[in-house]
Design brief:
Blueprint: E1 10-13, H1 17-28, E2 33-36, H2 41-46, H3 55-63, H4 77-80, E3 82-86, E4 89-93, H5 111-124, E5 128-130, E6 134-139, E7 147-151, E8 157-161, E9 164-167, E10 185-200, E11 208-212, E12 218-222, E13 228-234, H6 245-256, E14 266-280, E15 283-284, E16 287-289, E17 295-296, H7 304-325, H8 329-332, H9 334-358, H10 362-365, H11 367-378
Parallel strand pairs: 1-2, 1-9, 2-5, 3-11, 9-16
Antiparallel strand pairs: 3-4, 6-7, 7-8, 10-13, 10-14, 11-12, 12-13, 14-17, 15-16
Helix pairs in contact: 1-5, 1-7, 3-7, 7-9, 9-11
The structure holds flavin-adenine dinucleotide.
């Protein structure tokens, strides 16, 4: 470990994908860090969220020697495509983000499994991860001696001095609020519709099917061998009470244009507005924002975890460079580097989100937009086999 005269080099606020990846990256380079997570280990290891990690995210884990955390979940979707039903007719959607490389596949890895694996590896390798950390608050972030206070599980107030604070506590975390008012700008794009997302104890076979239909977008995506998540585009004003299980399955079948091979109990429902948000800059003094703490990307692009891994990678490299070379240049350019990457992905997320939603139900964006979106969508699909006379 490094010795900088502080309790540790980096305090990482939040043990989600961004924070745990960062902790593992730093640990591999012998940089001291402490991860403070608000919830219990049991809670974060079963919290269901995303399910698809793109090839760029998988490649980053490989580069840091962490291939084991997605082992067994890789898919060949970047090669094979994913079935996309347009008014019931099957086409193949080419998956692939703005930076997807062709040397690795993405992974259908439920987020809670990725989190569980990152925790296991971090603790196995000697990492310091403190669950149940309440009232976490970064202080003196505009000085060379920042510190983080929190209340531990016994109720005692603890202070950790450090060189840097990584704010990776998600969209509703506290790190961002430690930055003085007026420093950050926030840019938001609302798509004007929501997703009803439903967890169900029914496996998805194949692992992902998407549907563009005049009733709206729909999808069923695997969450492991015994579960899947259903997605139905719906108005922002819908509530889960309007969506009893029967209606969910009937609507899925209508939008797929075919019967569901299996139906079963649902375990949770949520209405999630589709939006993109970016906060700028992504650093202030010695505080650096990572992942959802700095940006939200439309979930239909399935790039949120990958963006979180990008930020963790960029910040870890910057800290390693600073510690090894006494050179802050990568830390100084961290915000610019990550914002450039984020905006590139926001652009592709807007394109994907609008194509797969606007090409369906015209009551949201109108018939003109629907026709344009159909043409956009065509560029994202594998071409139809050439017609032979
Ligand atoms: C419906 C839906 C589907 C999605 N599907 C995909 C997908 O398929 N692929 C994809 O890549 N992304 C997807 N995403 C996005 C993805 O889930 C997020 O982008 C990702 O979780 C971001 O990781 P993070 O570590 O930045 O934040 P989080 O995962 O939110 O982690 C933040 C952590 O900080 C902790 N925390 C919060 N406040 C505090 C505090 N005060 N003190 C200490 N700890 C705190 C939290 O408990 C949490 O553990 C989806 C999102 C939604 C809503």
């Amino acid at each position: 470990m490094t010795h900088t005269g502080k309790d540790t080099t980096v305090v990482i606020v939040g043990g989600g994908v961004a924070g745990l990846a960062l902790g593992n990256f730093l640990l591999r380079k012998g940089i001291g860090c402490v991860v403070l997570e608000k919830h219990s280990r049991e809670y974060v290891e079963q919290r269901q969220r995303a399910g698809n990690l793109d090839a760029d995210g998988v490649r980053r884990l490989h580069e840091w020697g962490l291939a084991e955390v997605v082992e067994g979940h890789r898919h060949g979707a970047s090669d094979a495509g994913v079935p996309l039903l347009i008014e019931g007719e099957e086409r193949q959607w080419r998956m692939g983000g703005a930076d997807d490389s062709d040397d690795v596949d993405g992974a259908f890895c439920p987020q809670q499994i990725l989190v569980r694996n990152l925790i296991r590896v971090f603790l196995r390798d000697g990492g310091d991860l403190r669950f149940g950390a309440e009232d976490v608050s970064p202080h003196d972030i505009d000085t060379d001696n920042p510190l983080v206070r929190y209340r531990d599980t016994t109720g005692a107030v603890r202070t950790i001095t450090c060189d840097f604070v990584a704010g990776s506590d998600g969209f509703r975390g506290v790190s961002r609020t430690a930055i003085p008012a007026g420093v950050l700008t926030s840019s938001t794009h609302e798509f004007g519709y929501a997703w009803l997302t439903v967890m169900t104890e029914v496996p998805a076979d194949p692992p992902a099917v998407l549907a563009v239909h005049s009733r709206g977008f729909a999808a069923q995506i695997t969450r492991g061998p015994h579960a899947s998540r259903l997605y139905l585009q719906c108005p922002l004003t819908d509530t889960i009470d309007q969506w009893p299980d029967d209606r969910v399955w009937n609507e899925l079948e209508a939008r797929f244009g075919r019967p569901a091979p299996r139906k079963g109990p649902t375990t949770s429902k949520q209405v999630v507005p589709l939006r993109g948000v970016v906060f700028s800059p992504m650093s202030y003094g010695r505080l650096y924002l990572l992942g959802d703490a700095a940006h939200l990307i439309s979930p239909s692009s399935a790039q949120g975890m990958s963006l979180a891994l990008h930020d963790a990678d960029a910040f870890a490299r910057a800290v390693v460079h600073r510690v090894a070379q006494h050179d802050s240049s990568l830390l100084d350019s961290y915000s610019e580097t990550c914002l450039d990457h984020t905006w590139r992905h926001q652009a592709s997320a807007v394109r994907i989100t609008e194509a797969i939603h606007d090409a369906g139900d015209p009551s949201y964006e109108g018939e003109f937009r629907r026709q344009i979106a159909r043409k956009e969508l065509e560029t994202m699909l594998e071409p139809l086999p050439a017609h032979r006379p």
